[in-house]
Amino acid sequence: MSSGPIFTDFSKLYGKSTKEFYSEKFYDAMDMESPDLKNYEQICNNIQVNIKEKEKMIPVCKKYLRFLDTSKLWSGLFWKFDVSLLLNYWLYDNITHIYGTTQSDIIGIGFGALQLIWSTFNTNQIEKSYREKCKPEPKMVNHEDWKNRKKLYDYYVDFDTLFGQSRIFFNNTCEAYHQKIKEMIPLCTYFERKCSPPGSYSCPEMFYICREKNLETELENLPCHEEIKSRGDSNSEGDTMNRPPVPKLASQSRGDDTGLQGHAASTEDTQLTPKSSDIGTKVSHSVLGAAPVLLTATMLYRVPGFVGSVEAGQIV
Questions:
Q1: What is the 8-class DSSP label of residue 309?
Q2: Which of 9, 62, 174, 226 is deepest in the core (most CB within 10 A)?
Q3: What are phi and psi of 308, to 5 degrees?
Q4: Which region holds residue 249: left if phi is over 0, alpha if psi is between -120 and 50, else beta?
Q5: Polar residues compositional bias: what residue ranges (predicted)?
Q6: Domain limits at 162?
Q7: DSSP summary character for residue 38
Q8: In the predicted model, what is the mean pLDDT of residues 220-243?
């Protein structure tokens, strides 16, 4: 007699993660393998994407459905923050890597295929409120500076862990906190510059979190700060002493250096600019074998709320 499907409670995967912060634990748990992924093979093996991307989209589909399917078991785990944003950042990160672009009309094929599966997937395990909340929704995260926005939201999710009164440092955890806070300083400076004064830039809702704490002061108050600082100073002195003098080229100047660094720093945000397009049309012409099920998918994309209804104004 065969046994029924085996389900892995996502909260158990989350608890298995050795990462320090909530956001890191979430992404780590989403990436984990588990025996119950085979429960979704039949559905995900038929995902409506091009053959070129299908092999890599299938595991993403399985892990997404595992998360959605066991929502009754983990629904109380993420009450402090909007888990749908973390989920869509995880999907967006994976899909943009698979397709090699952030162009909305191209990655929309992957998101649209997942939306079609989401719309037809139904089991008693799914918590109704989380079914709607955890819909694949690219317009939530599709911005030119999405990586910075993701880091900012991760910072918001991890805020209580970073600055909570009950934090206790063990072994190397202080250095992990130090690194996390240190990374937030230039990130908050970036959004401070973008959001002030208010203008055409769509400032992230969670930007206010940057003003909750003086990050420089918090960094200095960590018990490991002086040790890390002295270690860095020592390394810098050693590098300076051991480094042979470099002759200065006549054509070299600080202005040239600054210009090159500025260009390099802006490359990530200026390349692969998202374009608005009717994704439903793109799907119907791009996916191999325009079968009747694909026509159904195309119709679904035209329903308000599906990828096809994403407006250009959502992309900053």
A1: G
A2: 62
A3: -65, -20
A4: beta
A5: 267-278
A6: 148-237
A7: G
A8: 75
Quick one: pLDDT at residue 96? 98
Q: What is the pLDDT of residue 168?
A: 76
Q: What is the DSSP letter of 125?
A: T
- Average pLDDT, rounded, for the chain: 77
Asked whether residue 158 falls in the same domain as residue 96, the answer is no
Do both 21 and 136 map to the same domain? yes
- Is 258 within the bounds of a domain? no
Whether 62 and 169 share a structural domain: no
Cα gap 8→13, rounded to integer Å: 8
* Residue that the structure tokens 């407006």 belong to: 311
**Cα dist from 316 to 80, 104, 264, whole Å:** 27, 12, 21
CA separation for the pair 180, 167 (Å, rounded): 14
Per-residue pLDDT, averaged over 118-131, amounts to 78
Can you spell out the DSSP letters for 185-243? HHHHHHHHHHHSS-SSS---GGGGGGGSS-HHHHHHHSTTHHHHHHHHHHHHHHHHHHS
What does each C-alpha distance from 75 to 66, 67, 136, 137, 264 come to in angstroms? Answer: 13, 10, 17, 19, 42
Q: Which has the closest alpha carbon to 61: 1, 6, 120?
A: 120
Question: Under a CB-based contact definition with an 8 Å cutoff, are residues 316 and 102 in contact?
Answer: no
Same domain, residue pair 14 and 134: yes
